[in-house]
């Protein structure tokens, strides 16, 4: 049995366009981001990929991307599951800060450590920071699990139970699963899928709005490491642009 898993990072957001650290701040898509989501759906149609169920984070940019791509694919009616475990990495006190300004203020090494190191989180956000999620009803049930900052390792830790219990269960039922999520939650999932080392994951960037298809074996291991972007040329260029943010 071969399972099909499609990963889709949301289209460009308002804060991607403004070059701001975003994390759990619930910003919308830009017009370009909406067009990317539609294009993602068109690419799935062109490849004959028909998702049976969609998993999203609790953030608008992923939810809207899923809706737009599924709408164009005539799959707007499929069941949906949403979970905070698919949210973007919580960016701590960096949420709302400009990437270029943080790079200039703290230097390349610190900037890259915060952005791409596996196990060093940014400083925690103050609970009364305007970009904290304090009191946000969608996280009311989280209790002590509510993060104030996260490194990628923390994202892997919170994502793995969801991958193993929810997504794998749907795959095992023979469903084609679409996961609409975020740059760093998808980096965490790719790290687990491809068994990428802690060091090498720093160099992996996920472009916005580009479907990445994994065919998986019975043990949920990829048949092809790294999966397959439906538009590989565009994905390469867009991933490069993500890597260079802040410069
Ligand atoms: O700001 C963020 O939340 C993420 C994704 O946009 O940024 P980065 O790629 O720098 O981790």
CATH T-level topology: Rossmann fold
Structural class: alpha/beta
| Domain count | 1
Residue stretches low in confidence (pLDDT < 50, at least 5 long) are none
Specify the biggest β-sheet: 6 strands, mixed
* The CATH homologous superfamily: Phosphoglycerate mutase-like
The geometry reads as: globular
Q: Which strand order spans the largest sheet, edge to edge or round the barrel?
A: 3-2-4-1-5-6
Task: List how many beta strands DSSP finds.
Answer: 6
CA(first)-CA(last) distance:
45 Å
Q: Strand portion, in percent?
A: 5-15%
Report the CATH C-level class: Alpha Beta
- Oligomerization: single chain
Share of helical residues = 25-40%
Residue-averaged pLDDT: 97
Pathway: Carbohydrate degradation; glycolysis; pyruvate from D-glyceraldehyde 3-phosphate: step 3/5
Family: Belongs to the phosphoglycerate mutase family. BPG-dependent PGAM subfamily.
EC number: 5.4.2.11
Enzyme class: isomerase
Give the SSE layout:
Layout: E1 3-9, H1 14-17, H2 31-46, E2 53-56, H3 60-72, E3 80-82, H4 99-116, H5 152-172, E4 177-181, H6 183-194, E5 212-216, E6 228-229, H7 232-243
2-phosphoglyceric acid (2PG) binds at residues 16, 21-23, 88, 91, 115, 183-184, 242, 245.
Which structural traits does this protein have?
247 residues, alpha/beta, Rossmann fold, six-stranded mixed sheet, 7 helices, 6 strands, globular, binds 2-phosphoglyceric acid
């Amino acid at each position: 049995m071969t399972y099909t898993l499609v990963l889709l990072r949301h289209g460009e957001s308002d804060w991607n366009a403004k070059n701001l650290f975003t994390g759990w701040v619930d910003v919308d898509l830009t017009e370009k981001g909406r067009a990317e989501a539609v294009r993602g759906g068109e690419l799935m149609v062109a490849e004959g990929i028909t998702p049976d169920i969609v998993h999203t984070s609790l953030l608008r940019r992923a939810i809207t991307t899923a809706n737009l791509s599924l709408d164009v694919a005539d799959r707007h009616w499929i069941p949906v599951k949403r979970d905070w475990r698919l949210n973007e990495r919580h960016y701590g006190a960096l949420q709302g800060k400009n990437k270029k300004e943080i790079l200039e203020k703290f230097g390349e090494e610190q900037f890259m450590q915060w952005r791409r190191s596996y196990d060093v989180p940014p400083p925690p956000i103050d609970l009364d920071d305007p970009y904290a999620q304090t009191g946000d009803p969608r996280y009311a049930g989280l209790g002590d699990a509510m993060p104030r900052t996260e490194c990628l390792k923390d994202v892997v830790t919170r994502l793995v139970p969801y991958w193993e219990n929810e997504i794998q269960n749907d795959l095992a039922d023979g469903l084609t699963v679409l996961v609409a999520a975020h740059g760093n939650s998808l980096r965490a999932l790719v790290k687990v899928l491809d068994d990428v080392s802690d060091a090498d994951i720093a160099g992996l960037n996920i472009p916005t709005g580009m479907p990445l298809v994994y065919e998986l074996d019975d043990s949920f291991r990829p048949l092809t490491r790294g999966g397959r972007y439906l538009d590989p040329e565009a994905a390469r260029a867009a991933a490069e642009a993500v890597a260079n943010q802040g410069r």
